[in-house]
């Protein structure tokens, strides 16, 4: 909207950093690989062990880290714009919790071992159902407060239902499976996961990217936004739908990964300003980058013990203090 | 030439009827000022006319039903300056005024030279140029009101509506704001303004519309609408009045 020169530079810089981050994403791991080995792995025959490591294990993992991080961050940015609340994130509208419940339920029922697709599908279906309920509530009562409260209610209900399933877990093994999954991870992901989550995340991100102008206008309140020709009801539905697609698909393939959606837009505000519309794309790129870096941390040698450091734990451990720091440094500026 | 005609307008908030059977019109080139006691329904009527509130009855913009006009087209035709508009993020003044160009832009357009010229004009007119690079949450209430006026001016719409644009302004800026609105009308826009200040209303209005308890009770030149009789009946006040250099003035004096 405004003619700041820094915006394209920030986008370009982030894109370059994302591309650079792909390199350690492919070299780092239980077996360290050199550049030439990566190249060999990318180009070599399918049955070569190098090829299997690079193409089947590491490439899908890096791609998913970027997709999930970018998706969570752009939904956080869009929700913060829609709710005009710097503390909003995909968790707020209850979609993450719903998707998590769907996944845990599938593990509990033993369906996860029947088909690899059962867990992702259940997470997405639950994300879809909770979003549908939210949309219906938001339509009946045309208010943002209603939407937030409904989100909190759904979120609490789903957290309680998840606890219930954990409570009823019959064997320590299932309980461990569910806990590990709730902590979030990108280990052992395949192209099947990329193909399953990727299209939904990309579609959701495209929907969210189209809401930029409306979110910017919404900075001046709903009434002024409408007087500027923005259909605020449609805008709200777009943000909810985009978020549901992204969060459902992300939670399905990577488990619960928090704080990316909350922290990334805050970091980007320093670079591209407070306009919620202009935050969307930089947040997406930066969120992808952050999750790629967090995933690298889980591969460090000291992290290997105890079944490996979980990605969701890393993002929470780094994200929560960073978030607190940002909150204090904002002082009275965000009321 | 733009023309807005509303007839038999009813507006409800839930079960409460706030406007009843209102007939009002606004033509290009006139400054119409809507006055009335608190709770008379002025703001509701203004919002409905701007297409921002559901209503029963008919509103036609250039002989087309307002319901049949797209949001974007309506936004190009009617500029809206609300009272006490929130600014939810620390955006610069210039950035906020630039939002007035949204109705003219496609989803991925950047500001054109026409847009930029309109923004500069609006900032100049509303006397905001000197603080255009400041953040909107760092300016005073009066400056905030001028920013909102500048934002509406930047739309450069043939119809402009403003809800108490002078409410938080010092006398110099209040007079200046009315001069700007009058100039907009003189340049061909239809301007509809809600005001509490009867002195400014009597002096600036081409036509005054007086509302009471959700109904329009009088509509015409200031001298006849703001008569001693009407003021006593609707407001319960007595006012002093006179004229200076051909312009009439009014000064609310005491409660009856």
Any descriptors?
heterodimer; A: 335 residues; ABC transporter involved in vitamin B12 uptake, BtuC; B: 256 residues; alpha/beta; Rossmann fold; four-stranded antiparallel sheet; 9 helices; 32% helix
Query: Helix fraction of chain A?
Result: over 70%
Number of helices of chain B: 9
The CATH superfamily of chain B is P-loop containing nucleotide triphosphate hydrolases
Can you tell me the CATH class of chain B?
Alpha Beta
Q: Estimate the strand proportion of chain A.
A: under 5%
Number of helices of chain A: 14
What's the average pLDDT of chain A?
84
Task: Determine the structural class of chain A based on helices, strands and strand pairing.
Answer: mainly alpha
Estimated radius of gyration of chain A: 20 Å
CATH class of chain A: Mainly Alpha
CATH homologous superfamily descriptor of chain A: ABC transporter involved in vitamin B12 uptake, BtuC
Range of strand content of chain B: 25-35%
Could you estimate the helical fraction of the residues of chain B in percent? 25-40%
Biggest sheet descriptor of chain B: 6 strands, mixed
CATH architecture of chain B: 3-Layer(aba) Sandwich
How many strands appear in the DSSP assignment of chain B?
A: 12
Strand line-up of the largest beta sheet of chain B: 6-7-8-3-9-10
Low-confidence stretches of chain A: none
Round the mean pLDDT of chain B to the nearest integer and report it: 91
Number of domains of chain B: 1
Per-chain topology:
The complex is a heterodimer of chains A (335) and B (256).
Chain A: H1 6-27, H2 35-43, H3 49-83, H4 95-108, H5 118-140, H6 144-167, H7 172-183, H8 191-209, H9 212-218, H10 222-227, H11 232-254, H12 260-272, H13 276-298, H14 311-330
Helix pairs in contact in A: 1-3, 1-13, 2-3, 3-8, 3-11, 3-12, 3-13, 4-5, 4-6, 4-7, 4-11, 5-6, 5-11, 8-11, 9-13, 12-13, 12-14
Chain B: E1 3-13, E2 16-27, E3 31-35, H1 42-49, E4 56-61, E5 64-65, H2 71-77, E6 78-81, H3 93-98, H4 113-125, H5 141-153, E7 159-163, H6 171-186, E8 190-194, H7 198-204, E9 207-212, E10 215-220, H8 222-225, H9 228-235, E11 237-244, E12 247-255
Parallel strand pairs in B: 3-8, 3-9, 6-7, 7-8
Antiparallel strand pairs in B: 1-2, 1-4, 4-5, 9-10, 11-12
